[in-house]
Amino acid sequence: MPYKLHFISLGCAKNVVNCEQMMALCREAGHTLTDAPEGADVAIVNTCGFLASASEEAIEHILRMGELKAVGGLKKILVTGCMPQRYGEDVPAELPEVDGILGTGSYGDIVHAVEAVMAGENPRCFGDINAPVDEFGRVLTTPPWYAYLRIAEGCDNWCAFCIIPKLRGRYRSRPMEKVLEEARGLAARGVKELIVVAQDITRYGTDWDGRPHLAELLEALCRMDFPWIRLHYLYPDMMDERLIAVIAGEPKILKYLDIPLQHCNDGILRRMNRRGDKAYIENLLETLRERIPGLVLRTSLITGLPGEGEAEFEELCRFLRDQRMLRAGVFPYSPEEGTPAAKMERVDADEARRRAELVVDIQSRIMDEWNEQMQGETVEVLCEGFDGQAMMYAGRSWAESPDIDGRIYFTAEGPVEAGAFVRVRVTGTMDGELTGELAEE
Fold it and tell me: How far apart are the first and last CA of the chain?
């Protein structure tokens, strides 16, 4: 019989895609998807387990579903994704509210799991995390003007601080014909901003023949009807001349590159099993800026990594001031059980947090200076609708990725349709974000 299902997706864009695939499988099986958990038969919490803090967020959601279940507002709870993959049977043992678990190799078992828990069973599904990437349909949960295109699964980088390879398996590229087929479908649905995602998109295709094929894929995507193509994430050591040439030469590829660096100190980079040194990183960033005018660079940085003393931290601060990367996600180091770095000597958590706050301060000043430079400029903005709280329209330019960066707020004399491209003249700032007005054509 059909059941009413409510999905909760936590974590990264890749998790969003996994959740959308499970939703499609359930809908194809005849089940109904509901927007709220109240009155649902099963709530499916698709979790992140990358950091302990992500697991804590997942637990909070599970406990809320458990409270609803306790008062009869929900019948069953399934937990899927990285957290059960990481902690296994500890999840239902520590959280008796949970009726079943699916690891990252078992998203395709979701229909079976739903039917099993409704039959009073307690499914435990842990499929092969190194199997070929599942090719399922999706129920798009993003706004109709943008969508994620996942091109690979897993990771072979084995950074010393990261648990992802143990949760997601080895690097597996989706067949190019499957990626392009999905992209054509997204274009036909009117998607205007295609966001290419994987744990590391620069290694796309290297598991086939040892050579990267991202540049080839991007050239094919640029022949489709997407006005904007955005890239997440590009690891620095695989950014070769051909890839840089495609990014620089294709007008559809947004001049916004997310390149996770984590640190700049050579000793820390070696200890963390990162490829390339500070000189390589600096040369790469200089090359990218020379080749791609107006480039916005985003990165992620970790403070308090093993080996980071005061000198190494000051080096990181100088690097950020010198490079002036516009966007940065800054995280205090979290020693994750099961990673080599967790066994290394490091500063305590409070000091790592203090350093992160100092880096955020530096980054905020860089963004404030950029906002000042943008005053009077006219930029293309993808409108995302009217913001009732700000009492202005809101949207994003090439410089803002959804759910990661801020937005641009603007006024208009007449209505502006969500999903429309408009020209906005920047005239001010609000809480660190740009504001402006609709420019006359």
Answer: 56
